[in-house]
Amino acid sequence: MDMVNPILLKRTLQKVTMINSLYGRVTGKKDGFLFIKTGGVEWELTVSSFSLDQISPVGEDAKIFVYLHHREDQMKLFGFSTEEERSIFMDLLTVDGIGPKQAIKILSGINPSNFIETLEKDDLENLCRIPGLGRKSAQKILLSLKGKLKVNIEERSEYEDIVNALAEMGFDRKEAFQAVLKVKKELDTVSLDKGEMERELFKKTILLLSR
Fold first, then answer.
1. 55 close to 81: Cβ distance less than 8 angstroms
2. Most exposed: 32, 153, 167, 193, by fewest CB within 10 Å?
3. How far apart are alpha carbons 206 and 11 in whole angstroms?
4. 49-107: per-residue pLDDT in tens?
5. Domain locations in the chain?
């Protein structure tokens, strides 16, 4: 029987409850950055040009969807005006060679709807028009994501916290997402409440990925 390190499991379960969004007063905007105050804390978020234009003006309240990028030497928040844009950002991170900074640059060069349409049409030339995106990287994006985004966006939003936690443990994000979907199908035959479902889904996905 496969065993999960109980200390590691406990530590990771604590990470499953991630920050989904921030709601507060927009205090500043500048190229590539948004500042929002919630309670007594002002947050700095890296955002795309698309989100910067869509988010409420300075002085007004706004809800910002966020992604926490955590490395040993730093923690950085990325902000998005819609869940769709955040989901595309996370899909871009599954492409070999695409990191958070480049993913934001890509989303600054094309809005989410046009990005999905470009992939569905297999339009490499339009993808290559995005500033800073070379032909080789554009080809990788097409090969990795074509035909997947429309299906993944809604599902990825539902399981985003679990996928984030698994990625922080060192598992490949794309493989983690596919494993979560596989385990979820198996658990659909079992009667569990929401909390039990999340715990079982997380535990069984770790076992599957560890084999």
1. yes
2. 193
3. 13
4. 999 999 999 999 999 999 988 776 778 899 999 888 998 898 898 888 899 999 999 99
5. 151-211
